[in-house]
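It is worth pausing here to work through a concrete case rather than discussing structure prediction in the abstract. The textbook approach is simple: state the sequence, then state the predicted structure, then interpret. We follow exactly that order.
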Amino acid sequence: MKQHLYIEIDNCIGCRSCLAACTQCGGHDQRNRNYVYDVNPFVNRQTIPLMCLHCVNPACARSCPAQAIQITEEGAVLSALVEKCIGCQNCTIACPYGIPKFDEAQNLMYKCDLCYDRTKEGIPPMCASVCPTNTLQWLTEEELAAKKSRQQLGRWTASRDPYDALEGETNVKISLPGILQGTVKLF
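Step two, the predicted structure:
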């Protein structure tokens, strides 16, 4: 059964539990692979989690000349393979969301792998398993369809024109804040 990471931005309180869990996850070498962005820190406390959206047709993988970035059957876009990555950093430049980072010491790109060791077994990724406000959720297709019927989600728009997004379909689904949708949150 396919499951998706679902981000309900309205719920984020900026506690950064997701970052702590990501750092402590085995195999991450104490490096965060997700981020929490303070939207306007001098005005309010609005924060949003930033993480790899695991694009269906990811720019990072398309730009890799060594084909070091794998896409799993479940839709997770994995960090560059150690034995293939040549350290060109094309992936970090190509990603419209600025997610992949480059480790100069290892000459290797790293990013969120959607805790593939867990998610391939149906276990939620570390960030979603610790989120106290359900900003990050691990949902089945049926649960996602129920949310989609109530809210606009599934397309991440990084440009000003909502019909001309930099990247289209992603495997991470997002509920935009109600203020951006022109609607009041239903639940």
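Step three, interpretation. The first helix runs from residue 17 to 24. The chain has seven helices and nine strands.
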